[in-house]
Amino acid sequence: MTHTNRPALPPEIARRRTFAIISHPDAGKTTLTEKFLLFGGAIQMAGQVRAKGEARRTRSDFMQMEKDRGISVSASAMSFDFRQYRFNLVDTPGHSDFSEDTYRTLTAVDAAIMVIDGAKGVESQTRKLFEVCRLRDLPILTFCNKMDRESRDVFEIIDEIQENLAIDVTPASWPIGVGRDFVGAYDLLHDRLEIMDRADRNKVAESIKISGLSDPKLAEHIPADLLKKFLEDLEMARELLPAFDREAFLNGSMTPIWFGSAINSFGVKELMDGMGEYGPEPQVQRAAEREIAPEEPTVTGFVFKVQANMDPKHRDRVAFVRLASGHFERGMKLTHVRTKKPMSVANPVMFLAADRELAEEAWAGDIIGIPNHGQLRIGDALTEGEALRFTGIPSFAPELLQGVRAMDPMKAKHLEKALMQFAEEGAAKVFKPMIGSGYIVGVVGALQFEVLASRIELEYGLPVRFEGSQFTSARWVQGPKAEMDKLINVNKQHMATDHDGDAVFLTRLQWDIDRVMRDYPDLKLTATKEMMV
Questions:
Q1: Residues 6+ apart with CB under 8 A from 124
Q2: Strands (DSSP E) along 128-205, which ranges?
């Protein structure tokens, strides 16, 4: 990702910041998202996103199962204005079992905010998501949450991030006190003291302009013992930690960290200001043919997510499209590159959590939803005629495989239809073994089987049963036709096809995979398949 010598973007595009929030479950992502919407004027009062009486029904969580479980399963996009910026916040499912969806969401954003729990530090899920950000050199802003609870030493947290995630950390703010004594933070980028108001959780912190650290005003607002420790820590931090360097941040090698408490609305505004002021504007996107610059006049975009049955009454699907270039207007005709067919985009939706608004226009960097009946798939490109294939949208080998059967054998056809839909949506991999009947469903996390079973029943009225399968892993196979035929003839019981009709080798043992690689050197076995046309 290069940020240098690029032309200045048109103002509408330049003011966009498209990002995702990533975190380990329970680090406070939903609360932070809620406060972003609150300060962006998208909701009136925090907690409205999730009124307690409504059994924690978050505005951005709309599937029945999520309402039952209180977790965000489906990533939705929310757009709102903050100061002069237009924020496009793409919500990532926080649950560890929905990783593939989350990974794909990260291909559609230009930056990520990583939320860390001050008491727990870097957790396993954070690490996984973080690796994906690093693969794409995404700029990362870190928010250390829950500072109003007993949390760990600040240096320890920073060390852990540097060690575990191999990234330089620079403090954007420094906390004053911790746990019960947490009074606020000092904004190092603007020399401001931010004092937290514990009385009103929805009130933004009071901001006091300070002229440097020797300003006597500090002592008026901070108890002497806390001030002494704060000044000592800060001096140490300035010696030990690198200063903020925007270039290093933009190329993904440095993360600025803010300290706060999302539930108390503390530190959130500063984080949002940081995203506006320093965050990347819409970036160049890569296609197999060439790079696509956001300021190009023609509209291009790619589908990174398909959400089926957002409205169960109408079996619609909404394809989430990240606009890579141009200025999109409602009613535009775009070419669906894979089928070479024109598509008239008459009713695109912009997302304000669960409220859909018709989008009259959108610019590069924006996320729009296109309702369709299954024509659009993950990885598809939409352009004004140019044949482009966007690269880098991953599809992972499932780690768990199970057979699936309809309880009513007469409904096998319906089951096939449901499974194909989920496969196209990217919710699961569906394999049709060459021998025997039935389907094998592959997912990245065990909870997904439950989600699928509940959705097949809800959306298709089909009770199904998942059952153990003899296979534990799947590899896509590519190579010369003669070699492929040879492999298939010898290993029929291991062979299947995915929903695109591509060959897949199913197995229990790594040994089998090694054997095929040894016996068929011309064939390529891969654990991922680029979602490309």
A1: 24, 96
A2: 140-145, 168-171, 173-176, 184-187, 192-195
Which residue, chain included where needed, has tokens 């320890």?
A: 156
- By DSSP bridging, strand 168-171 and strand 140-145 are unpaired
Q: Rounded to the nearest 5°, which phi and psi values hold at 145? A: -95, 170
**Residue 66's pLDDT is what?**
43
User: How confident is the model over 109-123, as pLDDT tens digits?
Assistant: 999 999 998 888 787
C-alpha closest to that of 283 among 47, 112, 457: 112
The token duo for 505 is 């080798």
- CA–CA distance, 39 with 205 (Å, rounded to integer): 12
Query: Which three-class secondary structure state does DSSP give residue 1?
Result: coil
Buried b (16+ CB within 10 A) or exposed e, 332-358: bebbbbbeeeebebeebbbbbbeebee
Question: 150-200: per-residue pLDDT in tens?
Answer: 888 899 999 998 888 889 999 999 998 888 888 888 888 888 888 876 666
* Residue indicated by tokens 């499974």: 419
- pLDDT tens-digit profile of 99-155? 567 778 888 999 999 999 888 878 766 777 777 777 778 899 999 999 888 888 899
- Listed in sequence order, the residues at least 6 apart from 341 whose beta carbon sits closer than 8 Å to its beta carbon are 335, 375
How many C-beta neighbours within 10 Å does residue 319 have? 24
Give yes or no for a contact between 425 and 306, defined as CB atoms under 8 angstroms apart: yes
Which whole-number Å values give the CA distances from 456 to 338, 420, 440, 452, in the listed order? 28, 11, 15, 6
- Please give the Cα distance from 429 to 397 (Å, whole number): 8
